[in-house]
Amino acid sequence: MSNWYIIQNDVTVGPVTTDQLRSIGINPTTYVWREGMSQWLPAGSVPELHSVLYGQPGTPPPYTHTGSYQTYASPDAVPGAPAYNPYYISYSGKDKTATGILAILLGSLGIQYFYLGKIGAGFLSILLSLATCGVWNIVTLIQGILMLTMTTEEFDRKYVYTQSSFPVF
After folding, report:
1. I want to staple 96 with a disulfide (CB 3.0 to 4.6 A). Which of 56, 72, 129, 155 is the partner?
2. Would you list the DSSP string of 78-105?
3. What distance in Å separates the CA atoms of residue 61 and residue 107, rounded to the nearest whole number?
4. pTM for the structure as a whole
């Protein structure tokens, strides 16, 4: 039985056994490490965890990753989850590129907010455009550029899953 360490909610957890990993409910993007591994890896890239993730031993993962992984030397060296998670999967269905382009082209009409499902913010954006005689369009232009340059994870956190009814920057 291997003792594993995982990063969960920005905290290093462990040691845990393989059976405990099943009960914790890790997913393919959960970073894991154990003695003998040179770096932290997403669980989906560790063949011996495929049975924990996908049910049957030897079942290949539903995806493959050809890029590089974020690396850490040991569990003690991990301050928390990686700042950039290349394995983040957006479940919102909202595309940051489409939202950014809408903000750049039609931001004064609040179309980006209507697309995100923030109806009140869309109407407020229209009112601000009218009240400022179009100066508000500069703000939405900057907002669109920022949307295009941020990661999908940052975009979801800032604009999709936020509690704010009028997220600007």
Report:
1. 155
2. --SS-SS-TT----S---HHHHHHHHHH
3. 41
4. 0.51
